[in-house]
Amino acid sequence: MARRKLHGIQFDSPDEREVFHARESWVPLVIGAIPFVVLGIAALVIAWSVFQSARVGWILLGVAILAAAITRMPRIIANLDTDVIVTNKRLYCRTGIIDIKDQVSDLSSISDVTVDPSIFGRLFDYADVRIQTFAGEEDFLLRGIAHAYDMRAAISQGADANKGSQPAAPRPRQSRR
Question: What is the per-residue pLDDT across 131-145, written as a single tens digit (0 to 9) for each?
């Protein structure tokens, strides 16, 4: 049986197909840089009016843009290195460039998917997503995922389809109080 790779993630089964591919949104990256750019533009205007020279203002604007790039670098790297693929059977998540972390979970073992958008996330369709699995497996925490509600729907549909095709797992006994 030949194993297939998609976006650097190796599928275990030949009949497995991609249902949804999620990436981090660029919107949080841009929104986080806006205060630096505004301060740089304000410094440009103030320097131009005080020193009667735009050269100092342009230098201050350049410093503000450089500060925005440096402080936003972790988000830039996170945006480039996060790959989340929902297939018809599993959820694959790969994060990291140097320290690569792969997480895989069967859709049938996912217990809850929580989507937590911010105010800007509601406007620009991105959110933090927490995917909880049943005991013994590691939870997924994904920040700033674009189209997070679509991803949650794909996971739910896949989990429902897998539960219908597999024999029902025995339910744990619950004690009465």
Answer: 888 865 668 888 888
Q: CB under 8 Å to 69, separation ≥6 — which residues?
A: 33
State the angle between helix axes of 73-81 and 54-71 in degrees (0 to 180), rounded to the nearest 10.
50
> What are the residues facing 5 on neighbouring strands?
10
User: Out of 75-89, 113-127, 153-167, which region has the weakest mean confidence (pLDDT)?
Assistant: 153-167
For residue 31, give the nearest of 101, 123, 111, 109 by alpha carbon: 123
Q: Which two tokens stand for residue 110?
A: 């996912």
Tell me: the pLDDT tens digits for 58-104? 887 888 888 888 887 777 776 667 788 888 888 888 877 777 778 88
